[in-house]
Design brief:
CATH topology of the largest domain: Rossmann fold
Order of helices and strands: EHEEHEHEHEHEEHEHHEHEHE
Oligomer: single chain
Radius of gyration: 21 Å
Structural class: alpha/beta
Number of helices: 10
Number of domains: 2
Strand content: 15-25%
CATH architecture of the largest domain: 3-Layer(aba) Sandwich
Shape: globular
Largest sheet: 10 strands, mixed
Number of strands: 12
Length: 295
Amino acid sequence: MTVELPVVVGVDGSEAGLRAVDWAVDEAALRGAPLRLVYASLWERYEGAHLARDLGEPGGRVRAEDVVASAARRAAGRRSEVKVTTAVVSEEPEYTLVRESRNAALLVTGTRGRGGMTEALLGSVSLTVAGHAHCPVVVVRGSHDNRAVPATHGRVVVGVGEPPVASAAVRFAVEEARRRGAALSAVRAWRHPVREAPGHRAPDSVRGGSGPSYEREAVEALAEALRDVPAGVEVLRSTVEGPARSALVDASHDADLLVLGARRRHRHFGLQLGRVAHGVLHHSACPVAVVPEYV
C-alpha cells in the first residue's frame, strides 16, 4: 500500500502563518494529499493580547495547542475534503521543519511572524528551512499569497539556471503548471561580456563574445531545459539581459508561483542557498518554491 506523503506547513499563529495555511491546504487539495500542521517552539506559551483575542483566549496567554487547533479549523473550513493532522513539538522550528521535510511531498512556510524581533527570527527560519530541506519548500509571500487556487495570473514561472537540462526545478514547475491549468513561463538571464577597462585586458573568451551570441546561448539553454515538457502544458520562453535576481523578481509580479532550483551538496552542512535564491526570497511578489538540486 502506497502512503501519500503530506503537504507540511509550519504554523505559529501569525497572519502570515495563517496565509501559509490557506496556500498549503489549497495545494494539498490540488495534489489529493493530506495536510500536516506543525507548530514548533521552545516556548510553551505565547504572550500576546492580539493573538489571544483572535483565538478567544482570555488573559493574553495562548497555548501551542490553541494555535494548531485554530489553524486546523481554518484549513477544514477552506477545504473540507483534505485530511488534516497536527503536531506540537518543543524544539527550535528550523530543526523540526527540516526533519519533517524528509517525509513530506512539500513544505510550506510563511515569511515572518508577529512583529519586532519575532519577525526577524521567523524570517531566518524560512531561509534556513529553504536552504536545508529535503523536499521542495514554498515560502508564501506577496499580496495574493493566500490563494494557490484559483490562480490570479494563470502563470507559473521557473528560473532556468546551470545546468539547464531536465532539472528538478523545471520538473516541479511543469507539474505545478499542469495541476493549475496554468502556463509555464521559463526565464533565463544572460549578461553582456565584460568591457575592457583602461589598462585591463579581458580574457580572449570574453573579448570574442557579443551580445547576440550570449542571448543565443540563453535561447538554446531554454530549449534544452524544456525539451521534455508535455504537449498539454503551455510554455512561454523569456531571455532577459541582466542579473538573474532582477529578472526573476520582475517576473514574479505576473506569476502565481516562482520556482527556483537550489544546489545541494551531500554531506555539506552550511547554508545551501545561493545569492539569487536568497535575493528572490526577500523580494518576490508571489510565493517562491525552492527545489533541491543535488550535485
